Amino acid sequence: MIRNAIAFIKHYHSGKQRGGRADRETFERKLERLIVRHVSQVRERSAFYREWWGSLPPEQWRSFPAIDKTVMMNNFDRLNTVGITKAEAFAVAEAAEASRDFKPAIGGVTIGLSSGTSGSRGLFLVGAHERAGWAGAVLGKMLPGSLLSRRSIAFFLRANSNLYEAVRSKRLVFEFYDLLDPFSEQLERLERQRPDVIAAPPSVLRRLAEAVRSGKLRAKPERIISVAEVLDPLDREYIGRAFGQTVHQIYQCTEGFLGCTCPYGTLHLNEDLVYIEKEYVPGKVRTFVPVVTDFTRTTQPIVRYRLNDLLTESELPCPCGSPFTAIERIEGRCDDIFYATGSGAGEEPVTIYPDFVTRAIIGASPAIAQYRAIQTQLDVWTIELELPEERRGLAEEQVRAAIAALCGRLRCRTPQLVFSAYSHEAGTAKLRRVERRYKP
What we know:
With about 450 residues, the protein is of the alpha/beta class. Helices cover about 35% and strands about 25% of the residues.
């Protein structure tokens, strides 16, 4: 217990400091020492990594072969350091989801399931010491005011976890809102709770913002935090206007607590917890795929794990002065990059990044309240729009023109566009504004 309390306090204070104002070179040297020490410990405890890295010394960790979700899940039993098998972990996690009782664990180790937006679900294991550190880091970085102040937090997610419950204390009221519950009941609970902080996926925050604007929700939280889904510029603006404040973000997945916003609302990578190598992508300035090494986790070590996300670095430094990398936006998944037929004969398919699609659609008409773009075939996109019916015809023509202009700049064939009404229901599944269902 004392060890866990020390981990909590250490990560809380580190989170509050956000790297201080150290220069980047000094900061990088410190990280290098931490990672080399961490890798040495992982090699001793994980049979999988010991074999995966071969004879390469810890100092050459950047030369270790990267892993991904498939490699991790195929080697789960030998990768984790606490002897939990994949079958055992899935059994506990799936039973918790079925019963909606998310407290069970194995020997004090929290078991969780990822949401499986890539088509297959992943497992994560977090020990008690790591859970305490995570709670300290999250509260240090995201809780407004002092830890000694009384605060009430409302947390909306598909599934609860011992990990999230770790933030509960005598001074912190933590209420989990199950996304499977009726929205009307959630509004009633919020009115009774009157939370200081609301954390929820953007699709749910959007519904809460609509309730605020219609007068159905009168709660006035100090902070709004977007989690679990990509925060689209359209949603960020709408939610921010409704609540009258900056919308903050947490960037977290199975692989770790990867980023969060500073007081200025800029998303920064949590480089006091994870080291992120950047695989820059062609044709998109400052955009990269992250390769993650989490040097705070030993139960399920994450070393050189290649994510499937697209992140764009900020062009200008953040005025907060933190040495942590500032991110302009999370664009989405590599799986959601669209492809189009090149305009010339025999050309390779042209890459269209999710951000290009987003900007074309939301810039086409101010009448568009919500949208989805789904690529169903090489040259066929479905565009779902939410807007007043009397403005639909004009807006569809404007979107058609904007996408044609985009394809002209990219020198590719303009796809056939199939328009329909907006259909996503918040809480049922993760919202993906730009989604590719076509498989090249």
